[in-house]
Amino acid sequence: MVFFVLVAIVHLWISILGLPNRWKILSRLNRNYTLLLRLILNIKVTIAGDEGQLERGGYVVIANHVSYGDGIVLGSIFPIVFVSKREVKKWPIVGQWNVLCGTIFINRQRKNEVGTMVCEMTRKPQEANVLLFPEGTSTNGEKMLPFQTVPLAAPLRSRSIILPVNLAYQTIDEQPVTAANRDFVYWYGDMDFVTHFWNLLGRRGVEVLVTLHPKIECFRYADNSAGRKKLAEDCYNRVLGRVRGKDLFLEDAAITRTSRRRYSPVNCFLMFSTNSFNMASAFLRMIGWPNSPILPKIFTSVSTINAV
What we know:
The chain is of the alpha/beta class.
């Protein structure tokens, strides 16, 4: 509980000071926050794809959407800034949850404002990743909804790089995910958040596969209605794993098969420790705290252990 209160205070502090690299700091802070939540919920993640993209910034990450758990999973492996429609802020419980996560609430009617914000967050010196769910709502997972063009207008206008990601929940309490048990994790429709979260806390464990697909470069699309429609269609196909070189503006026409890496609770704890030390180091340097020969050695040691 103390950690969550500290997160809220730091978010407020960053907003008030308006630091030049505030989005980058916020994205790293969000990663620690969601990583701790993932440990509490005992969600085990297996990643398939180019893991070198995990530590990079400046991407607009898009994914299918079945639960608030999607944000927890993706936020724990990427340094991410969450973006949501302004109406969500007024929702009971869920609105406060998003505020604590440092979510940026936007007015989708002001398209130019949204595009400027995405451009600022993804370019240097910020280089923060922005998370979007183009379906516009969560579903029961039976079928992915068509991607809306409005959420993709901002990355298209700012000529961002889109990283398509697919989330597939594999097991719940060591049982395959089916229509009978999926609602323990999937959150959609008019489900009550508090009741659902309490039931999720009671699960012994959840396993999810996160597939990172090759990126899509927005500069290859026209910044107009037809361009947004084409981009939405290509992103939809890519998240589903459909690869058609003649239809997609991609550097590679096929997904390179890579080995999968599973992140156990021990890995998560080590990642959390490393991120916390790095955040503390960055904070001390930012406030001009005198250099200490001890701190770098500690950070190096923790990073080495985490790498193993």
